[in-house]
Amino acid sequence: MFNSSLKPFACALACATLFTMPASAHGILGDRFFPATITSDDPFAADELALPTFSAFRRGDGGPATSEKDYDFEWSKSIAPGFAISFAGGYIDTPSGKGFDNLEITPVAEVIRDPDREFILSAGVSFDIGRSGSRAVADSFTTYTPEVLFGKGFGDLPDDMALLRPFAVTGTLGYAIPGTSVTSRSVEWAGALEYSLLYLQNNVRDQGFGKFVAQLTPIVEFSMETPTGTGGGGTTGTVDPGLLWSGQYEQLGVEAIIPVNRATGRNIGVVAQLHFYIDDMFPDTFGRPLFGGAR
Length: 295
Known about the structure:
Elements (H helix, E strand, L loop, with lengths): L1 H4 L1 H12 L9 E2 L2 E2 L14 E12 L6 E15 L2 E12 L2 E4 L3 E11 L4 E10 L14 E11 L13 E12 L7 E10 L1 H8 L6 H4 L1 E12 L8 E11 L3 E10 L5 E13 H4 L14
Antiparallel strand pairs: 1-2, 3-4, 3-15, 4-5, 5-6, 5-7, 7-8, 8-9, 9-10, 10-11, 11-12, 12-13, 13-14, 14-15
């Protein structure tokens, strides 16, 4: 079961290596810096570390509401310019069980990178490895999710819309395929709308912001799941407004978790993250691609 589930991973790894594009530092396209998002994936293949990410939420999942606390991490390592593999996991604490979640492995390749239009398109496959976590909280089967990811800044808007140029969007669209007939396949769609005060200050109009304020990004994320099989239920998900502060080497972020319906959860939760940009912290060692990076 475990070995066969890794066959698609090997194929995705080989294909992604063939189609990688030249890349630069994390989240930068032309004059645009895209901060690392918290509850939705961003489209960049970079060297990054999210540790820790803490969330507390009262989930519904179609049944009685239960409180859940998650302590997560994600490490993304660049293999070649424009191609990276991330490893994610965490510890789940619920009234019905506690333990480590399954390990999730995701190779991502940047397919299109257009700095002039502040646009990026990437493709990847996420593998949630069954039985790699605790039986009390983790699935016993592997789920793999082919996905496309994109980012678009609005810096190319005309002068009469200059105040809208700091806006940017990112998004993902994936199809989750569980390795069991009991669980329905589902469409996973997520994204973020962000407004960069740094872009406003440096590229639109000098607002006289201090350094701390200029590095803030108000953001609204969302993360949804829509089952496609019979009996899979309806769409569940959350909308997550918050604020990010991005330095050169690290980023702090906090967002509210707002359920979109009763099936998703009860009450408003919170998620907070400390994020490190390894490619800027250690550009000549840990933050350099294993193959094809500058020396």
